[in-house]
Amino acid sequence: MKVLVIGSGGREHALCWAIAASPLCSKLYCAPGNGGIEQVAECLPEVNISDHGAIVGLCCDLAIDFVVVGPEAPLVAGLVDVLDEAGFRSFGPNAAAAQLEGSKGFLKDLCAAHGIPTAGYGRFKQAAPAREFVTANGAPIVVKADGLAAGKGVIIANTEAEANTAIDDILGGQFGDAGAEVVVEEFLDGEEASFFALVDGATALPLATAQDHKRVGDGDTGPNTGGMGAYSPAPVMTDGMCDRVMAEIINPTVAAMNKAGTPFKGVLFAGLMITNDGPQLIEYNVRFGDPECQVLMMRLKSDLLEALIATSRGSLAGQNLQWRDEVALAVVLAARGYPGSYDKNTVIGGLDEAQALEDIEIFHAGTRNDGGVIRAVGGRVLNVTALGASVADARSSAYNAVDRIDWPDGFCRRDIGWRAIGREAEAKD
Ligand code: AMP
Ligand code: GLY
């Protein structure tokens, strides 16, 4: 079958890499794609993915059989609905189900109505009652823009004054329409982890767990980013904890969405806080994580395309996926200056040598192939991903490959995996 993947990040490179390996895939396209995705798919760099009509036109012209939507923005904007109406099968939730990520207030109300564990909260359109909520609950406290804010709409306020400033900024238009409403919630203390499950409307099939590194600097310092590295599995997510997440969080969500007449189909990415009282849901994303997807795809042994099709057809019941026992770990190389401003079009060398190492895949994000020369054109640029017997092994392979890459204008964190490696060391003592 002919498959079209929508997106241009490391996540989409990993998805394309896994889909290209499926015997079910006869031809793979990616719109717009990037300089690395070209190795496994035909890229369509001219396509504007927010132009849903253009994507339908492309599906007609190329006789596409299956569309996989990578990022959240087109999902929340209803691309799957438009494809559905035009008769094209796709992987991802429709706009109504994508509200799980598109509106934090919607998610919190769903959790409250169905007893899904999450931080206590209030929803506000006016500053005065939001401030009263802050006074009543005290700091630390968390202030969130309701809608999609490109990962920047969450403020962890250490003082009531910081919380009040965040409320004023959000309701004052800092994030445009995404901040028409603010959610203020209790601060949760614990270890964060990500849990992924495929959901076909009625059945949820657990995938795997991962941990991300959101801060730009070593030791989890500096501003938040889209993610500077990840590994899978997350040691904090024991089998017992995964069972609790399925029973207390994922399955009740699937049932609630079904009951509301807006069944969820796609991948549910639960951002969790593992507290002393058990798992609490911080947020849902309605797509794979980036860079979490890269480590998941390295570990998946089963046919990804078959699983994505079963998700869209509603036939996940009874399916089973096979995973490698090894750990996968990804180090993100970003352009110097990210998440602030950075130079573009700088040249990256040494990629072939790094890629040739055993158990290494280099997934590209912001790159362009300029006549055989790979240039950096984004903030997060490469994901150097390794498999290893332990997190420590995977980390040393990944950094060995990173050190073969010649890109003076890039940087990476040098401590990806520190939390899990600490646990591995403790377990040995
Ligand atoms: P989100 O965009 O909702 O994932 O939030 C971004 C980050 O803010 C999360 O990954 C957490 O590190 C943190 N965060 C969000 N909500 C809370 C909370 N209620 N308590 C503690 N940390 C939080
Ligand atoms: N790495 C976090 C995310 O994809 O949302």
Features:
single chain, 429 residues, alpha+beta, Rossmann fold, Dna Ligase, domain 1, 4 domains, 9-stranded antiparallel beta sheet, globular, binds adenosine monophosphate, binds glycine
**Contiguous helical run count:** 14
Give the strand content: 25-35%
- Outline, from the CA principal axes? globular
The overall number of domains is: 4
For the biggest sheet, the summary is: 9 strands, antiparallel
By secondary-structure content and strand pairing, the structural class works out as alpha+beta
The CATH homologous superfamily of the largest domain is termed ATP-grasp fold, B domain
The CATH architecture term of the largest domain is 2-Layer Sandwich
> Cα-atom Rg, whole angstroms?
21 Å
Q: Let me know the average pLDDT.
A: 96
CATH topology of the largest domain: D-amino Acid Aminotransferase, Chain A, domain 1
CATH uppermost class of the largest domain: Alpha Beta
Q: What is the total tally of β strands?
A: 23
List the ions, cofactors and other small molecules found in this model: adenosine monophosphate, glycine
- Stretches where pLDDT falls below 50 for ≥5 residues? none
Classify the oligomer. single chain
| CA-CA gap between termini | 52 Å
Helix content: 25-40%
Short description:
With 429 residues, the protein is an alpha+beta fold. The protein has four domains: 2-94, Rossmann fold; 126-180, ATP-grasp fold, A domain (Dna Ligase, domain 1, 2-Layer Sandwich); 191-313, D-amino Acid Aminotransferase, Chain A, domain 1 (2-Layer Sandwich), CATH 3.30.470; 327-428, Alpha-Beta Complex (Glycinamide Ribonucleotide Synthetase, Chain A, domain 4), CATH 3.90.600. The chain has 14 helices and 23 strands.
